Amino acid sequence: MSGRLGSDIDAGYAKKIFDLISTETNIFTGFAPADFDEILHVLKIVTFKKGEKLAAKGESLDYFGILLYGSLRIGEAAKLTPKEVKQGKTIHYLKIGDMIGHQNLAEQSGECMSETWKFDVLAETDGSIAVLPFGEIKTEIRRQPKGMFKVLELAANQAYETNYFNITGELLNPIIPFVNHPNTLKKVREFFTKDQVIRTFMAGFDRKDERIFMNDVKGSNSQPGDRIIRRGTKDRSLYFVIAGKYIGLGEDYPAKKETYKAGAIIGVTQFLHDDKWT
């Protein structure tokens, strides 16, 4: 991806993609929606086609990228041989929110463009990626210092998580991803308009804020025994119980067991103070 790039997608649509990414991943934890505008002044949204090679093994990588849509495959092989399957080998994929070149960018050694890439990265499907060419770093620092600071923060956070995993073999923040089920939204909104606890919670909202809040709420179904939140993780979310019953198992379980029923709000303290789940 050499040369100066232009975006294939307009800024308004790109911001909508970022809003979606922020609900599906934790890469934007601690970032405000207004930060997306600054970031999008720096990154270019580029589309790719299935089969296209985005990075080549043994060659220098000349950009930092965030996968916004689609799937990328690590390695040339699209299918394992029976021998490789028997050996327990797997094909690895990059999913939405995963990054390329974040460690190169985060090192800030001045030699990020001369470092060789360790594996091939190919497009498993059509998709799009937000890109910062390394050749434009100095220009963007002068032109958009705030946006560049946010991009560097994204890269540094991801690089730290990558190094942590490489050293310990564990995820730094093994959060349980929230799975959005759009078919639940009608039930969620109906509950919000009727439940007294929720109405009290929203009493301080003006009409505009209430409308924004209701549009941003996501719904999800769960089955008995499903773990919704993992203790010790951090994702700064509020959970409103619409139906059923949930049990909180802390360090002092079973001596102390919290039960959450319809109308309960889980995670107020964690949300306000950006604390870990206990």
Describe the structure.
There is one protein chain. With 278 residues, the protein is an alpha+beta fold. The protein folds into 2 domains: 11-168, Jelly Rolls, CATH 2.60.120; 182-273, no CATH class. The protein has helices spanning 11-24, 33-40, 82-86, 102-107, 137-143, 145-168, 185-194, 196-201, 207-216, 268-273; strands at 44-48, 53-55, 63-69, 72-74, 93-94, 99-100, 121-123, 127-133, 239-240, 245-248, 258-261, 265-266. It has a 4-stranded antiparallel β-sheet. Strands 2-7-4-5 form a 4-stranded antiparallel β-sheet, with no helix packed on it. A two-stranded antiparallel ribbon has the order 9-12. Helix 1 (11-24) packs across helix 2 (33-40), helix 2 (33-40) packs across helix 6 and helix 5 (137-143) packs across helix 6. The mean pLDDT is 80.
Question: What are the main properties of this structure?
Answer:
globular, 278 residues, alpha+beta, Jelly Rolls, four-stranded antiparallel β-sheet, 35% helix, 12 strands, 2 domains
SSE series: HHEEEEHEEHEEHHHHHEEEEH
Strand ordering within the main sheet: 1-8-3-6
Q: From the alpha-carbon coordinates, what is the Rg to the nearest angstrom?
A: 21 Å
Based on DSSP secondary structure assignment, what is the total number of beta strands? 12
Give the helix tally: 10
CATH architecture type of the largest domain: Sandwich
The largest sheet is: 4 strands, antiparallel
CATH topology of the largest domain: Jelly Rolls
In total, how many domains does the architecture comprise?
A: 2
What do the pLDDT scores average to?
Answer: 80
* Helix share, percent: 25-40%
